[in-house]
């Protein structure tokens, strides 16, 4: 009987609740209006010859390196952030190694690390989901080969202090520290280029969020040029499709579009947090394009009532420490207005239900 590697039989599966997503999608942290019009124009120019050739990644890496202010040898374009995480795990983890993740966090950290046969060590976030720096350092030992951190974190929106992450990288030079900055555009804080002093540091980015290219699957893994050379050995030379590579320069060039969208998100985030404060609803201050809030036993009713008004929000109750929590994505000004209208109606409805019970 054919058998897979032993690690796969106990591996958790990630099943995103896709299915019927009819309505305003504020559940997956996507860009709510989509990509730049310049990207759509470029898509219309792609012909059969573009699709018949194998994709060339190098020209795209030169463009992205210039955009990030680093050298092309310091980065690798990946099939979304997921592949960036996968490549780091494949490069540095072996069966018997240990990988530390701070929970709650992005599910793919655990899945890709465990798939190598490594042991995943979860470290619970501190009070109010603060980054548990000292707890992480206390769990590092001779078997630790990877520490993975989402910054800002998903689903909490919390930002780990950059000085704390640098402290971890300096304290454990034998450990690969992967900092996933998928929501960088909404926080403005980065460890980009710090690997020049700390070669065990890696930074990943995505063009799925602010740039609205989730369907094209484009990410970046960046780090020390020698270490990136090793990561390239486990990457396919054709991991990105030619359509994504053709559209990427146009997405990067339309800075006005991206800045306007980010401005709408930040304004909506501030307004949502203010609204939750006024209504006495517990939430956690966010540095991402979403806010995590707590509805307790009313969370399921809240999610259903929002869906009934055409607004999709995300149940995060299964994440460690997130029982009764809901995550809501912010988007364009128009979409935020729809959110606040529905939110006001649903909260009043839930409050009235409590009064009559």
Structural description of this entry:
With 357 residues, this protein is α/β, with parallel strands linked by helices. It folds into two domains: 6-30 and 256-356, Aspartate Aminotransferase, domain 1 (Alpha-Beta Complex), CATH 3.90.1150; 37-253, Type I PLP-dependent aspartate aminotransferase-like (Major domain) (Aspartate Aminotransferase, domain 2, 3-Layer(aba) Sandwich), CATH 3.40.640.10. The protein is built from 14 helices and 13 strands. The protein has a seven-stranded mixed β-sheet with strand order 2-8-7-6-5-3-4, sandwiched between helices. Strands 9-10-13-12 form a four-stranded antiparallel β-sheet, covered by helices on one side. A two-stranded parallel sheet has the order 1-11. α9 (184-187) links the parallel β6 and β7 (201-206). α4 (58-68) packs parallel to α11 and α13 (299-308) crosses α14. The longest helix is centred in the last third of the chain and has 24 residues, at 255-278. The mean pLDDT is 95.
């Amino acid at each position: 009987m054919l058998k897979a590697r032993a690690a796969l039989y106990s591996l958790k599966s990630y099943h995103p609740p896709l299915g019927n997503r009819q309505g305003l999608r504020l559940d997956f942290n996507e860009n709510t209006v989509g990509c730049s019009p310049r990207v759509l124009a470029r898509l219309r120019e792609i012909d059969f010859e573009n699709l018949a050739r194998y994709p060339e990644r190098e020209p795209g890496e030169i463009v992205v390196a210039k955009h990030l202010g680093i050298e092309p040898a310091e980065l690798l374009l990946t099939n979304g952030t997921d592949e960036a995480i996968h490549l780091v795990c494949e490069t540095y983890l072996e069966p018997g190694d240990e990988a530390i993740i701070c929970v709650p966090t992005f599910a793919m950290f655990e899945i890709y690390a465990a798939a190598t046969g490594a042991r995943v060590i979860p470290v619970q976030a501190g009070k109010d989901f603060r980054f548990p720096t000292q707890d992480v350092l206390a769990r590092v030992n001779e078997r630790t080969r990877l520490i993975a951190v989402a910054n800002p974190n998903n689903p909490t929106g919390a930002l780990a202090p950059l000085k704390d992450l640098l402290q971890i990288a300096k304290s454990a030079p034998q450990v690969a520290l992967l900092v996933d900055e998928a929501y960088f555009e909404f926080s403005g804080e980065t460890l980009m280029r710090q690997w020049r002093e700390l070669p065990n540091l890696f930074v990943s980015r995505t063009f799925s969020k602010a740039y609205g290219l989730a369907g094209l699957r484009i990410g970046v893994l960046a780090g020390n040029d020698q270490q990136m050379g090793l990561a390239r050995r486990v990457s396919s030379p054709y991991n990105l499709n030619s359509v994504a590579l053709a559209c990427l320069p146009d997405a990067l060039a339309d800075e006005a579009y991206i800045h306007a969208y980010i401005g709408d998100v930040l304004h909506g985030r501030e307004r949502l947090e203010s609204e939750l404060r006024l209504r006495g609803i517990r939430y956690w201050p966010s540095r991402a394009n979403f806010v995590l809030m707590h509805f307790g036993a009313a969370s399921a009713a809240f999610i259903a009532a929002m869906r009934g008004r055409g607004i999709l929000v995300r149940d995060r109750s299964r994440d460690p420490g997130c029982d009764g929590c809901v995550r809501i994505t912010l988007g364009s000004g128009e979409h935020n207005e729809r959110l606040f209208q529905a939110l006001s109606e649903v909260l009043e409805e839930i409050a009235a239900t409590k009064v009559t019970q």
